[in-house]
Amino acid sequence: MTSKLEQKETPQANGAVLPIVPGDCLASPERGQRAEPTDFLGPDGTGVEVVVLESRANAKGVREEDALLENGSQSNESDDTSTDRGPEPASPLKETSFSIGLQVLFPFLLAGFGTVAAGMVLDIVQHWDVFKYVTEVFILVPALLGLKGNLEMTLASRLSTAANIGQMDTPKELWKMITGNMALIQVQATVVGFLASIAAVVFGWIPDGHFSIDHAVLLCASSVATAFIASLVLGMIMIGVIIGSRKMGINPDNVATPIAASLGDLITLALLSGISWGLYKELESKAYVNPLVCAFFISLLPIWIVIAKRNSATREVLYSGWEPVIIAMAISSVGGLILDRTVSDPNFAGMAVFTPVINGVGGNLVAVQASRISTYLHMSGVPGDSPETAPRRCPSPCSTFFSSDVNSRSARVLFLLVVPGHLVFLYTISSMQGGHTTLTLIFIVFYMTAALLQVLILLYIADWMVHWMWGRDLDPDNFSIPYLTALGDLIGTGLLALSFHVLWLIGDRDSDVGD
């Protein structure tokens, strides 16, 4: 057929008019697959008028920057200008460094004070009988605190992305996302909590060669109960935060993940300490209590599995989301092994109170960055796409921290929060007389060096990992944050232990560490 398609003007849903020409028919990646000119010809070969409708419910079919909140307010004006865009699409995240820092600062400080409180709790409970005689509980600490990061922060990132691209706009969609995701994290919490207890038993048995079945069951019951209850409470808080952020005109990516950690470390550590202490007290007189507690929470698994399978939004994660949380749990357990071997050493006195702080701050900051990059990529397509806005998969440190794009800008802002944030947290710990370390200048220098190096490494890894997973057709919301928070635990604990060791070596000359 040699006749040309007649150019038509079609009204958009927002009142704008688009011309339809043969070369442009649905050619944009935001509008779906390309349509051939013959698809718009009538029976007699003449052109027909085609009405192009844009659906806000389709994550790829709209200009998603309408759903992203800029400078604390929602804006739909980008619909009116989308037809005037050139070949280079504008960045969907039009936030200044000031607006990013302003939105992140309060949740960051709130999360930091939560980790300080967790550190103070750990500094107290390390002297309890259950921590003295069942030392493997220390191995559970980073694993379960990391599990909070692996599940709650992943939940926060997943829901933030869904909220930003308009998948939680109606009550039906909102309820569907809530029920499916809550059931999913209960499944993951129960299974990973059980595996964490096994890892704690193995890591505790390897160095000493001592194994106690009663202690193993105690660890299992404490871990599963803590993971289940903490995930239930924090999941509900997380959903409320994201819904509230949307109503207040705040980008959920900037506040959801830090607030997920603000009470997370404290709640999780308090639950672990209280549950393990209570079960330890019942160990001799009522030995059957521990296996009953473990069996009860495991018996609830089929209920959560059925609910999660019925939801299309969580069905895929239920089948494919295990690898990151399990591997992350193993990585965090190695950090727990370091903590177990150092917390009772007088040369590392005070390390217990600082470990949750340095790990929590690093995990919170990198989770914010990973969530932002993931949202940025979701606005350009689906996992597996290679949008023009995505950088190369092996970025240089300069492109990660010093380029002009919005993700580099947010990385600089988050990195600059490390020193002032930790100074506030160190002062708080010192004023509350936490730990057994004198805050001398040399200690602060070594501590800040470890904290800065940890966050620097994590932000760079996040930039590489999120884009690498995107190119491998993996959703970064589900896969990146577990690895990053676990690496934060391992790197933070390792660098902190190294700093304490160096300070011990020079302590008799330049520092009062260990007094």
Major sheet description: 2 strands, antiparallel
Q: How much of the polypeptide forms β-strand, as a percent range?
A: under 5%
Cα Rg:
26 Å
Task: Give the beta-strand count.
Answer: 2
**Overall body shape:** globular
| Unreliable residue stretches | 1-40, 48-93, 508-515
Task: Quickly give the CATH architecture of the largest domain.
Answer: Orthogonal Bundle
Strands of the widest sheet, in order across it, are 1-2
Fraction of residues in helix: 55-70%
What's the CATH superfamily of the largest domain, by name?
A: SLC41 divalent cation transporters, integral membrane domain
Our measurement of the CA-to-CA distance between the termini, rounded to an integer number of angstroms, reads: 90 Å
Total helices: the number is: 18
Order of helices and strands: EEHHHHHHHHHHHHHHHHHH
What is the residue-averaged pLDDT? 75
Overall tally of structural domains: 2
CATH topology of the largest domain: Tetracycline Repressor, domain 2
Strand-pairing-aware structural class:
mainly alpha
In CATH, what is the class of the largest domain?
Answer: Mainly Alpha
Keywords:
2% strand; two-stranded antiparallel sheet; mainly alpha; 2 domains; 67% helix; Tetracycline Repressor, domain 2; disordered C terminus
